[in-house]
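Query form — protein Malectin domain-containing protein

QUESTION: What is the three-dimensional structure of this chain?
INPUT:
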Amino acid sequence: MKRFLLSAATTLGLGLTLAGSPARAQSPGPFSAFTPLELRVNFQPASAPVPAGFVVDSGQVYGNRGNGFTYGWNQDNTANTRDRNNPNVPSQAYDTLIRTQNGANFVWELAVPNGYYEVRLVAGDPDFTDSDFAFNVEYYGDVLRGTPSADQHFFEAVKLVDVKDGKLTVSSSSPAVNNKLAFLEVKRKFGIDINFQPASNPPLENYGYLPDNGLIYGARQFGFTYGWNVDNTANMVDAGHDVDIVAQRHARLQQGGERVWEIAVPNGVYEVSMLAGEPFNYVGAYRIQAEDTVVLSGLPTGYGYTTGLARVAVSDGRLTVKSAAGAANNKLNAVFIRQL
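ANSWER: The structure tokens for Malectin domain-containing protein are given below.
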């Protein structure tokens, strides 16, 4: 199977592989219905005051904490919690910490539904600067890096990550020395990848895609709601070429009338990327918009594809995709949606 779309995927800047089988196949049952989740975890001795709005992690082994959440460490890390009682910190959250390399390489996990999460890490120690901070989140390496000094004791980083195994994982990365974590914040974000295809094609769920088969807007599997303004099943095509499995399938957006696709999402700002085209077919002018923003615009060249990426705002609970002015013979293979 040819894999000629990898460079196009890289251009989208989402760390996604559009070509062939994506690099990291998801675990069985990779999708979870979107429900809001926000959590702030402070790492501290069990006896220390708890900052307002936080739950406590005092180094216990992973398990049900009795506060509605399940989280903890790969082994007992209670001896590595600290409360400095430094009067110069901005809040109690900056006064406590846990050491993640003293005696072992400790790994922290939080049970969450599979999906996308914005993770904020804060590393530091108000009393000491004898460290090089370096943390991974999931398979994203060095999400946080920093070397403290007399002028800067704390470092923080924010990263959007995807969870596929039901656990969000935080670990030290190889450059870390005497790693210390003060607190973290986790917020679930909406995210989904859709491949447009005939119902007769096998879905690509194990590769992270949900199928759209041209059905009218309505409830779909895994708690998502999406679809078309009219029945568009007759316009779902598998070109049948020996090319990328995502790229050879597409929906026709203008055959028999203008087709509009929507998906129910929380209101907010989204990064939307698209792949449009048909293998070695150069008839058309691809112009597709999400909400009022043109995401993709171009003539098919090379192997016959055009890609695009844009940020859009949703205020009515539905993200809308349709042909933009000037489009001809519009086709859409896949859409990738990430809440920012």
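ADDITIONAL NOTE: The chain has two domains: 6-29+190-339, 38-189.
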